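hey so i finally got around to running both of the ones u sent me last week. sorry it took forever, my laptop kept dying halfway thru and i had to restart like 3 times lol. anyway pasting them below in the order u listed, first the sequence line then the structure token line for each. didnt double check formatting much so if smth looks off just lmk and ill redo it

first one:
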Amino acid sequence: MQNETILHVGMDDTDSPKGMCTTFLCYEIVKFLEKQEIEFMDFPYLIRFNPNIPWKTRGNGAVRLTIRTKNPKKIKNKITQFVANYSDTKNGANPGLVFFQSKEIPPSFEKFSNLALWKLIGRKQAKQFVSENNIESFYLGNGQGLVGAISAVGYKFSDHTFELLSYRKKSQFGKKRGINLDSVKKMQSTLPDTFSSYDNETDRVLITPHGPDPVFYGIRGETVKSVVRASTIVNTNEKLDGYMVFKSNQGTGDHLKNELQADDLKPFTSGFLVGEVSNKPVTQQGGHVFFSIRVKDKNIRCAVYKPTKITHVAQALIVGDKIQIGGGIRKASKKHGRVLNVEFLRVLQLAKHSLSANPNCRKCNKRMKSKGSNQGFECVKCGKSAVSKITLEMPRKIQCKLYIPSVSAHRHLTRPYQRIKKRNKNIRFNDSIPWIHVF
């Protein structure tokens, strides 16, 4: 295409708890763009940012499109109309839209995006970034969506997955979803090329959301081919509108790569810490387990919640165990102090668990009885005596390894066990597989 322009488009916060979805808006925009004289330069991006932001709608995801066009002005005007018309502003959506025309994305965008993965970034910072960098933008409401829009444009993959999102017809929005359980079980034949679709322990389908948004189901996997193939196995009780495949950072653990500073734990930040267990874990009402780790000279309180199904690991920790934990910092309240909500726990080194016990009789191999305070011990069978107790090293119930929550408790960004050593770096854009399809 002659006189073409590379246009990057970032969008966020077009939805509310009562409806709409930013990915669905992207789907509608792509359907429009397919009829225009443009070229897609990559798959649509679905980037999940810090999941511990308190005002996120669902998974704190923003989207990005990169296209080549001869008429960027027309495209930008039309996309702006889409955002204005589809955003659920009446129920609290604060959409943000960013356009950037250039083949290369400046490092400042990437820096902003990296911070959004684990920090709380305010709309004031986003508006300042737009102003300082002379960026074309559009927003409604308070403009909080600009944070995700900028970050989506600046995001660079070091690992990626794909998610196929299928969308309902508008007449079905808000109605109960009906999906064939056996078909989802059958879809498990696509493992390990797909992940986090079904929980065998609880017999629970994990691909369907529960809110009123337009998404019927989402299938996560390693390639476009794998998620498209998996979608052909799933049976639903309604005719869907279509699907679109997004390139995503889901299942990468992106938000927990940042090492937190023990002396500067700000609420809602995400990351990891390395330290030693400094008190005996306590199980509180509800089955949640609390313990502390010492990092340098700071004691950090940590919480492992019952739904994660790794509370048994936390209960088995003892003082002196060296661990790495990842999660988000919960804001202090009147009843509770600041806590790190644990999303993974890696045991690095186990302390010795020693107990003192009455000695055994060497002749009878029976445990001796105490003769009284400071009077030593005696074998009740043969009468032999001993002066002091012995020290026993008790076997540990946990190992030096990584522990992550049950698949039902995974967040969008949680790296599942099957992806621990998996990295996708070289999958290039391929238009031969239908990454968007309207039924």
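and the second one:
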Amino acid sequence: MSTLAPTTPLAEAAPPAAGRRRRIDDWRPEDPDFWRTKGAPIARRNLWVSIFAEHVGFSVWSLWSVTVLFLGPEYGIDPAGKFLLTAVPAALGAALRLPYTLAVARFGGRTWTIVSALLLLVPAVPMTVLLEPGVSYSTLMVLACLTGVGGGNFASSMANINLFYPSRLKGRALGLNAGGGNLGVPAVQLVGLAVLATAGAAYPRLVPAVYLPLIVLAALAAARWLDDLPGARNEPGALREAARDPHTWVMSLLYVGTFGSFIGFGFAFGQVLQLQFAERFPTPVDAVWLTFLGPLIGSLVRPVGGHLADRLGGARVTFWNFVAMAAGASLVLHAARERSFGLYLLGFLSLFVFSGIGNGSTYKMIPAIFRARATADVAACRREAGTAQRWAVRMTGSLIGVAGAVGACGGVLVNVAFRQSFLTRGSADAAYVAFVAAYAVCFGVTWLVYLRPGAHRPAGV
């Protein structure tokens, strides 16, 4: 298998003729003059369109986080069955992230964004037609699984935008791209709230119907304003090399704890509220007006994690972030046992906040790890400067692809944990204990590998 490598200049770029496919043959973002005169406006245009397309993809991926709230007694589905309906989109989304990353170099960022946007119609159209009482549970499972295609869009979008920006600006650009995409989770929940408040719980098909024109608009915007960088290529053996590097699996574990928590809680929060405090949330609309708050806050603070990592160091921010997440999960457990809704909501919102910050800080650690190692190799005369830089970019792309895929599996684990906890204990308490233990493992690993005195860690991480 392989991964993205940087583009190389081929010829001076010329403005694309009207109606022609956009293709940039000369792309040198690290050249200050090129970046100032030509690169920055092109990169910004691609970034904003990419954010919109990824945002729609995240919304489709998250459709079942709100759809399950419409499934009343007439559908005959118990809470365990509903948690499975929110677990399978996370599973397919995780599985698609790696091939979606590679697709950018294979087909081009513009081309693949068009294709991946149109693929969102595959789940959205049948959901609009089939969601009504009497539909079989197996059909609902298939429809839920298909929405996982939206989860792959994040990986290809991040891989594409990573190519457009110079190293000094990648953190901010990737943070904006990821944060804007993550906002698709609360956005679809607000759409669900609007449908519940107007048409009522009898019309779940209206939620995916709202996204049909937005999906088409995302594809049209990509066709009109995005560019392909044909110099990007998949290098044979890059993923195999990354798989042998222990940092790949350490960072994948940490991303399970951050992004996995964000997407898992985003999918499950509405259901958990209704089950944990049924007397306070007797109808879906009562739960949905709070459901969107957590994902909204978590999305907005993601760039803050990258900014803090720039100033304080990614490993340090990630360590204390996991400590805070363990404290937040402990507060949720205590509040659930004491039936204190105020503390419960505070604890859960803190989990969204810190999962968002952790998303930013862990992603910022990835290029820093290989950039520091490349610098050390040059200083020790093990690699020539250009070769070391290309190696760092190749390894960063590989790790981002692997960590993104593995991290999304956390969304499955969160929903399965809630399902098993309610099945065996009748409450979510066992799940909260598991989350506390998982975050303790994450901050322990972060300290052991990157912060422990004497640890063989890349400097500056």
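quick thing i noticed on the 2nd:
The chain has a mean pLDDT of 86.
anyway thats it, ttyl
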